[in-house]
Amino acid sequence: MTDPVIQLERKGPIAIVTMNRPEHLNALSAELRAAFAHTFDELAATQNCEVIVLTGAGRAFTAGLDLKELGGEKAADGKAKAAMAERDLADAMRAAPQPIIGAVNGFAITGGFEIALLCDFLIASENASFADTHARVGVVPGWGLSQRLPRLVGINRAKELSLTGNFLPAQQALDWGLVNRVVPAAELLPTCEALANDIATTDPATRSEVLRIMDAGWHTTLTEGLALEQAATKAHDKKHRSPSKVAERRKAIQDRGRGFA
Asked: How far is CA 33 from CA 85, 120, 126, 245, in A?
């Protein structure tokens, strides 16, 4: 029997969600994306869940979309693919009323970087690193990275990351204001759990309203950018994202020693 691709652990008011495909750097297969969205939808409806901690198993947070599935080298699970089409994981994250702490344990690459940016704040292991390789694999961001990253680290730094595809190590991510703290790997989950418990001690109604107005204020300048991104994603995918082209790009990346899934 195979392990579930999403592991859920409850510790009182805290839910710890772990992406669990460590042998594939937690690449976001159709199965994982469907399970991810389902888990967040369930937690959103759970009254005694007050804070969510999101992390990955092994040496990656997540390396992003499963390029083998995208390139047609491996068939996606049909049932999971249908579920994924009905509910997007980013929408499920945004709909969750609980604060989400990203416990970034390792690589957060491309789609994985986007998932990290959807968290309310990030705590990074000393082993964490971030990279936006959308331009390398020929995919335009679709979960908000092009708009959120510049607002967090500044437009020039965001352009450097997204146009080069280079890695941003944990300490530099802290210096740039992307993550709140960098801690030893063994202290990552305990640190996040302690912060989650601190959050859970605050008044739920007030906490929810503070979170709501912070997000509402921040998104007043973000909404149009997200709409532009969605339009660009659809147009780019229609023109450039055939399975054969994805497979060609993946092979080229691997030939340069830059493959991750």
From this structure: 10, 20, 26, 22
Q: What is the side-by-side order of every strand in the sheet holding 181-183?
A: 6-11, 14-19, 51-56, 100-104, 121-125, 181-183
Using the 8-state DSSP alphabet, how is residue 4 labeled?
Answer: P
The SS3 call for residue 14 is strand
In the chain the domains, ranked by start, together with CATH numbers, are 6-255 (3.90.226.10)
Strands (E), the chain: 6-11, 14-19, 51-56, 60-62, 100-104, 107-109, 121-125, 129-131, 167-169, 181-183
User: Does 73 score more than 70 pLDDT?
Assistant: no
Tell me the H-state helices in 56-177: 67-70, 78-86, 89-95, 111-118, 134-137, 145-153, 155-164, 170-175
Backbone angles phi, psi at 195, to 5 degrees: -65, -40
Say if CB 52 and CB 99 are below 8 A apart. yes
Residue type, 120: D
For residues 153 and 167, give the distance between their C-alpha atoms in angstroms, rounded to a whole number: 14
What spatial distance separates the first Cα and last Cα of the chain, rounded to whole Å? 22
pLDDT in tens, 85-134: 668 999 999 999 999 999 999 999 999 999 999 999 999 999 999 999 99
Tell me the pTM. 0.86
User: Phi, psi at residue 106, to the nearest 5°?
Assistant: -160, -140
Distance of CA 29 to the CA centre of its chain: 13
**Token digits of residue 213:** 């107005």
The count of C-alpha atoms lying within 13 angstroms of the C-alpha of 102, restricted to the half-sphere facing its C-beta, is 27
